[in-house]
Amino acid sequence: xxxxxxxxxxxxxxxxxxxxxxxxxxxxxxxxxxxxxxxxxxxxxxxxxxxxxxxxxxxxxxxxxxxxxxxxxxxxxxxxxxxxxxxxxxxxxxxxxxxxxxxxxxxxxxxxxxxxxxxxxxxxxxxxxxxxxxxxxx
Length: 138
Known about the structure:
mainly alpha, 4 helices
């Protein structure tokens, strides 16, 4: 007798809609960071829209367990926290090295790079989401 793994559970329509809302909230937050010339308050996803998105992601990730959406929630949550980390590193460099002016440039570069990285992750995740595919490696 061979043991075959059980197929992943199909997510509910409301969970699929909620995941799309989280992607949209994160996208709006990231675009706000980009529109502000990559100079967000702290990080591309740290504004109120990003915070609403991360709260929603944490609330709904339990429902996604065992479905292909679970990897999307991990992907989105990690995107948020890493963007916040790099945003804070950029702010720290910006403030600490502002006296010699190089900190202004380095901090700005970190913020722009973080914004671009977030946009990449959101686009890649959304394309997989649209095709009902899990994020590989998650």
